[in-house]
Design goal:
By secondary structure, the protein is α+β, with helices and mostly antiparallel strands. The protein has 3 domains: 97 residues, Beta-Lactamase (2-Layer Sandwich), CATH 3.30.450; 80 residues, Orthogonal Bundle (Helix Hairpins), CATH 1.10.287; 155 residues, Heat Shock Protein 90, CATH 3.30.565. Helices cover 39% and strands 22% of the residues. It contains 9 helices and 12 strands. The strands form 3 sheets. It has a 5-stranded antiparallel sheet with strand order 2-1-5-4-3. It has a 5-stranded mixed sheet with strand order 7-9-10-12-11. Strand 4 and strand 5 form a beta hairpin. Helix 5 runs antiparallel to helix 6, helix 7 crosses helix 8 and helix 8 packs antiparallel against helix 9. It is elongated.
Length: 353
């Protein structure tokens, strides 16, 4: 039986590197002295650059000292580590020790599995569950408030029909105005609590802006905020999914409120131009640093303090707007706040379901 051809060391090294380069996730071969000996193409093409010949903690983690529990320090044993973020992606790190029968521990193979999509799905599912609970609560609240409100409104209308003095009539009129306002709020909250409608329909961005503004007014962060609606008198309708475009608008409003913790001016505006309609949200907050504007739509990227945001609001909004063939533009002059513009074509493609 013929023996298989013997490959030269250079051929074997080329074959091993070709196999590693074919794997889409980053893979590193790290020596016991923390030096990155080999890296596949995916690892070399990360924003941090080619890691070969550099210390792993500097090239991979961006630190000037070894990471806690680093495998080269523990003989290749690595406790389960929380997912690591790099270049707008999320990675789950796995390590495998390299041992020689005579020389013992020589280093590790580190495999960084991209779990961005999984993490995004987990967070979205959790968010949907919370929103479902909020929806049930909102529907129950609207029901409990709506019933006595309807009875009170009926009594006021009865008193107005039976006649009253001028002073009493004025007081009844004011009371009815405020009751009608509460009724509209209850109606908006009740609609928010209904199951999401995924069917596209021709909608006015003016109506979306008004609904989002009425919902966001309940937020405690609105204290000290002057909110203005500057809506176009004539605005063509666009084919959209109402719940999704409303979610985009609310997300932008929440971001604007977070940018103005000490108060400010929040402007919601609409406009139309040739072949497009626009909804913009402007604030007088701290703005977005120029070096970060290219990253704000990345999943999990946030400039907020820990615990104040998931880094998904703008990413999800960007995806929804793209689904309708539109885009989100950002203007943030230093020290002059930010303006986010949702620009949609009048002939919007049907969204993917």
């Amino acid at each position: 039986m013929a023996k298989p051809p013997t490959r030269k060391p250079m051929q074997l090294e080329w074959l091993a590197q070709s196999i590693l380069d074919a794997i889409e996730d980053p893979i590193y071969v790290i020596g016991a002295d923390f030096t990155v000996i080999h890296a596949n193409r995916s690892a070399r093409e990360l924003p941090s650059g080619d890691p070969r010949g550099r210390a792993c903690y500097a090239a991979v983690a961006g630190q000037d000292h070894p990471c806690a529990g680093c495998p080269p320090q523990t003989g290749g044993v690595m406790p389960r580590r929380a997912p690591t973020r790099a270049g707008g992606r999320v990675y789950q790190i796995h390590t495998y020790p390299i041992r020689d029968e005579t020389r013992g521990f020589q280093g590790i193979i580190e495999y960084a599995r991209d779990v961005t999509a999984e993490r995004l799905l987990e967070v979205q599912v959790a968010h949907q569950e919370r929103m479902a609970s909020l929806g049930l609560m909102a529907a129950g609240l609207a029901h409990e408030i709506g019933n006595p409100l309807a009875a009170m409104s009926s009594l006021v209308q009865l008193a107005q029909r039976r006649g009253a003095t001028a002073l009493t009539a004025d007081q009844l009129g004011i009371l009815r105005t405020h009751m009608d306002r509460i009724g509209r709020i209850v109606h908006d909250v009740s609609n928010f609590g209904r199951p999401a409608n995924r069917e596209p329909a021709r909608l006015s961005l003016n109506k979306i802006a008004e609904t989002a503004a009425s919902l966001i007014r309940f937020d405690p962060r609105c204290r000290g905020i002057e909110m203005r609606l500057e809506l176009a008198e004539i605005l063509p309708a666009v084919e959209l999914v109402e719940d999704q475009i409303l979610q985009v608008c609310v997300n932008l409003l929440v971001n604007a409120l977070d940018a103005m913790p000490d108060g400010g001016v929040l402007v919601i505006a609409t406009a139309s131009r040739e072949g497009e309609v626009e909804l913009s949200v402007s604030d007088t907050g701290r703005g977005v640093p120029a070096q970060l504007t290219g990253r704000i739509f990345e999943p999990f990227f946030t400039t907020k303090e820990p615990g104040r945001g998931t880094g998904l609001g703008l990413s999800v909004s960007y995806g929804l707007v793209r689904r309708f063939g539109g885009r989100i533009d950002v203007e943030s002059p230093p020290g002059k706040g930010s303006t986010f513009r949702v620009i949609l074509p009048l002939r919007t493609p049907a969204p993917a379901r």
